[in-house]
Amino acid sequence: MSRALKLAAVAGAALLARRALRGRIARSPLWPLPALDTPVSGHSPRRWLPALITSCTEPADGVLMLTLGSPELPPWTPGAHVDVQLPSGLVRQYSLCGDPADTGRYTIAIRLIEDGRGGSREAHAQLVEGAELPVRPPRNRFGLVPSSSYVFVAGGIGITPILPMLREATAAGADWTLLYGGRSRSSMPFTAELAAYGSRVTLVPEDEAGLPDLSALGATTPGTLVYCCGPAPLMNAVREAAPPTTAVHLERFTATTPTTATSRPFTVELHRSGRTIEVAAGETTLAAVRRELPDTPYSCEQGFCGTCQHRVLAGEVDHRDTLLTDQEREDSMLLCVSRAQDDHLVLDL
User: Fold this and answer.
1) Measured distance CA(186)–CA(192) in Å, rounded
2) What pLDDT score was predicted for residue 44?
3) Residues of the chain with pLDDT under 70
4) What does the pLDDT read at residue 19?
5) pTM attached to this predicted model
6) Mean pLDDT of the chain
7) What confidence score (pLDDT) does residue 21 get?
8) Phi/psi of residue 314, nearest 5 degrees
């Protein structure tokens, strides 16, 4: 073989090796790494997974239920939710309400909220059978802790993360009850499936029976775990009604603290960009950062999805999210709701 051919062969092999390495890096859960030029989020980015809408039904008034299919969908556990990328690019979070044993398929249900931020309106108007709907791998901060006894409380579309919990608790032989409230019987999804559980389930349509009676929570036996998902007033009432020694698990998809409550101005140094910005008392850290770095990712703007999580290099953070663990709060923050504890923060941006 001539010298020129040998050199070409070596160069070609090196090129293929570099491409293979780049592919492995891009698929790594640790990508991008802190030493690289790309701004680093405080959590490991999760790649979008292609999925196809294989079924589109309406299990209740104003509720769209979608079944998504793909061989790439990872396993999940009851209480998990996924990020969904709508056709416009909006990212929203929905609880998985299918069967974890049904591999290769996810089921989500979306309540139409006319006066919401637009995600549910877009989903109801544009998502149809056969359309592509990218999702990120599931996250679970509402996992079902093993127990011999549970009390489940759901309000409206809050039944979605609870439904697979009922199946798991039943399979484990646990004793459980469900109190399920909604505006009307016709607006409450999955009532037909819940009927199979008989007297374990109590339905409380508000137009027929008023608000759910939570007084029985006060007599919860020791060791019983309480799980609740629904509107904030319901979850607050459940926490107040349960005995102080009872473990109450809540799934929130709304902020618990207004982003501008007891807020004051501060400065943020963008370490990688070499710029310092002012954050006014009436604006979020995210809004101020996006003035300088408009491509900074975000989604919920309420402190529960984690899309805008970034590393904090210096300064004390006033954490106002409902997502991060104590360990994560040591060196990161959610820009959409959290602020500086004092006058200055340094971000890895």
Assistant:
1) 11
2) 40
3) 1-46, 253-262
4) 54
5) 0.74
6) 86
7) 47
8) -160, 150
